[in-house]
Design a protein that fits this description.
It contains two helices and 25 strands. The protein is mainly beta and 295 residues long. The protein has a single domain, classed as Jelly Rolls. The strands form five sheets. Strands 1, 2, 14, 15, 18, 19, 20, 21, 22 and 23 form a ten-stranded mixed β-sheet that branches. A seven-stranded antiparallel β-sheet has the order 3-4-5-12-7-10-13. β8 and β9 form a beta hairpin. The radius of gyration is 19 Å and the shape is globular. The structure holds manganese (II) ion (MN). The site of manganese (II) ion has 5 residues, from β6 and β11.
């Protein structure tokens, strides 16, 4: 469903620019799925409120077939976004579904969920992302929740120059993403698709932390005088000094990029694998509750 969007009105002239560029690190998780970790590494610990970003991309079945068998989460949210291939998820609340290309799943672990995420294919390309979004102290123990997004559930904003934006969370012009209920982190999750040399001036909430990740083709980020080139696979964290907008331009052909933003929580973080709380005592409690089958 395409809608014509007018860009949000921008009141500040100053644009955000790149403050930091990192490449991901090859690692594996689950029962041995090969992936690239972009956030959650020694190079880039976190981008508050984001705890982790993984990209998985392989057409080699041995890289993904083992999947992510049954495992717990507490204290945060995850968003899985699929570009190619299929995963089946099943959880201990009775949810069961398949995530396919162009769709995704927004999962609120809250006080606890136990689930599995397994490939629903034996060959072919699997390509997608998993983002972890922190919850504030006041919401870490809320009931688990869950939202499956089919491709048609994600609206597309048409912008000048043939640029399109798939809006999962937040808004681009008049187009509002399906993850729109009130969240302390006010997340923005947009996939930009830019024709060769096209550019966009994207409005973003003031005070949000923002990062841009070109996953297909390269881009240039920032106003002309401060622009920085990013190749595929380079993640840029942007400045956050009250600016409301960012310029992004395709570089060397067409490009696709994730633009992800969130309101920082600025709370202490105590993390042990898939448990993310505020204190070590709460972590201990999480492990105990999981072992006691209270998830
Ligand atoms: Mn999981």
């Amino acid at each position: 469903m395409a809608q014509t969007a007018r860009p949000l009105e921008v009141t500040s002239r100053e644009g955000r620019f790149v403050s930091r560029v990192v490449r991901g690190m090859a690692t594996s998780d689950g029962a041995g799925v090969k992936l690239t970790r972009l956030i959650g590494t020694p190079l880039l610990r976190r981008v508050d409120p984001f705890l982790m970003l993984d990209e998985f991309r392989s057409d080699e079945p041995s890289d993904y077939l083992a999947g992510f068998p049954s495992h717990p989460h507490r204290g945060f949210e995850t968003f899985t976004y699929m570009l190619a291939g299929k995963f089946r998820h099943q959880d201990n609340k009775g949810n069961d579904g398949v995530l396919g290309a162009g769709g995704g799943q927004w999962m609120t672990a809250g006080r606890g969920i136990v689930h599995s995420e397994m490939p629903e294919q034996e060959e072919g390309l699997v390509w997608g992302f998993q983002l972890w979004i922190n919850l504030p102290a006041s919401e870490k123990m809320k009931p688990a929740g869950y939202r499956d997004l089919q491709p048609a559930d994600i609206p597309t904003a048409s912008l000048p120059g043939g640029v399109t934006a798939r809006v999962v969370a937040g808004r681009v012009g008049d187009v509002v993403g399906p993850i729109d209920d009130a969240r302390a982190t006010e997340p923005v999750f947009v996939e930009l698709q830019l024709p060769a040399d096209a550019e966009v001036d994207l409005a973003l909430p003031r005070g949000h932390e923002v990062f841009v990740y070109p996953f297909d083709g390269g881009v240039e980020v920032g106003d002309a005088e401060k622009a920085q080139a990013l190749a595929r696979g380079e993640l840029a964290v942007l400045t956050n000094a009250g600016e409301e907008r960012v310029r992004i331009k395709a570089r060397g052909g067409e490009a696709r990029a994730l633009v992800i933003a969130g309101k920082p929580l600025r709370e202490p973080i105590a993390q042990h694998g898939p448990f993310v709380m505020n204190t070590v005592d709460e972590l201990r409690q999480a492990v105990e509750d999981f072992q006691d089958g209270k998830f």
